[in-house]
Each structure stands twice: as C-alpha cells, then as structure tokens.
Amino acid sequence: MVKPKSYSHDLLDNVEKELLFEGYLSGYRHYAEWDQEWEIMRHPLKLVRHSTNPFDQHAIAVFADSKMIGYVPKSSSEKISILIDKGASIYAELVDVFPNAETQKKVFFRIWNYKVTL
Fold it and tell me: With a threshold of 0.90, does the pTM exceed it?
C-alpha cells in the first residue's frame, strides 16, 4: 500500500522568511514632507521598482500609502531588485520611525523575501 504524501495543515509551516535588508530609508529628506513621520506609521510600506532612475538602474522606491518617501539604499538595491523582477514575494516591514532624528535616520525598516514550499 502506498502512503499518501502528508501536507501541513498550518500554512505557516510552509513559509520560509529570508531577511534581505535591515536599515534606514535613503532619500527621506528629498521625498517626505515636513512632520510626516506620524502619517508614515499609519500605512504599510510598499516597494516599487524604479528601473528608469538615472542614478541607480536597480532602484526601488518606498511608498507609504500612495506617497513616495524614499528609496532602498543603493548598496542593497541590486540583489533585491533582481528578486522583485523575478516575481519573488518581497515585503517591506516598518520597524520604527524616529521623528527627532537627523533626516537620513528617521525611518528604519526591513525587507523580507517570503518563500512558500509545498
């Protein structure tokens, strides 16, 4: 008798999470409006490829709701952009906002790659 393959009934058992980036948002001072930090905290972050960016062909813009607030730092954008372009499940997680910090250290976030195995 052949035993059927068993599957987990808990979907989370089939999800692997890989940390791709942890750090501060780049360009915040150029894109965010004055005193916008509290508004950012109310919305999930979204990542959008910006391949036509003249400064970084691997650029990834970061949005809070429909407002662009900066970029993934250039030092990390190539690896993440390749995964996004391949259709990977990439998600940004807002960790903290520091309203009184210098402008380049106001928004701390993580980027995760979620892999589902069945």
Answer: no
